Amino acid sequence: MNEYIAEVLGTMLLILLGNGVVANVVLKDTKGNNGGWIVISLGWGLAVFVAVTVAGPVSGAHINPAVTIGLALAGLFPWAKVVLFILAQMLGASIGAFLVWIFYYHHFNKTEDPGTKLACFSTAPAIRRTGNNLVSEIIGTFVLIFVILYISEPSMNIPGVEDARIGLGTLGALPVGLLVTAIGLSLGGTTGYAINPARDLGPRIMHAILPIKSKGTSDWQYSWIPVAGPMAGAAIAAALYLLQQMLFV
Predict the structure, then answer these.
(1) Please, where are the H alpha helices in the chain?
(2) For the chain, which domains are there?
(3) Which of 42, 69, 152, 208 shows the greatest Cβ crowding within 10 Å of its Cβ?
(4) How many whole angstroms separate alpha carbon 11 and alpha carbon 55?
(5) Global pTM?
(6) How far is CA 54 from its chain centroid?
(7) ∠ CA(155), CA(68), CA(196), 5° rounding?
(8) End-to-end alpha-carbon separation of the chain, Å?
């Protein structure tokens, strides 16, 4: 599988399951209605686990432009691939958002509140304060990228046996899923923790163009924060990682 296709598929699964759990909790007359924040945070963590399991062996499962930028800034990913990776992530996120709309189509129609419908696509702040909202996204993404830079699978080298690989296999995706769950539970209450520009922007675009009944505005005034905040958080994480490498290596 081509690494760019892997990013499309991984990000598609991320949004299908991640925005899917939001739709299950907030839309009217679903089985999971009013399931609460713990369900949403756990659902997003498991969505990351599934996405990383599928895309990880092929592309490294960035599934997030902030991860791609952070790895490139840290010197761990070639800049020549950055633009295509981000485009693949945006495409996958858009497809995932479309599938959520199709899956919960009748529940979208039965839900009256436009803000609730938008929440199934993109994030919004609990208290709208531009500076605080931006800082929330910066800090949340900093934690994500900084920890990812230190996550590695255990391996074992066997003398005399080339290409031997012993490790966690699919369970190697578990640490990232747990990390996103922790961020959601601890740092998600202010902005809904986008911590991923593609996760917010791709679905927001789909919300704007899909014929959703009584959907209201796509809140473009806020849309730059889930893009700029994660990018800034990724840059800070990469800078601190490089500083630590210089000081302690």
Answers:
(1) 3-26, 37-59, 65-73, 82-103, 105-110, 114-119, 130-148, 174-187, 197-209, 225-248
(2) 3-248 (1.20.1080.10)
(3) 69
(4) 9
(5) 0.92
(6) 15
(7) 110
(8) 36
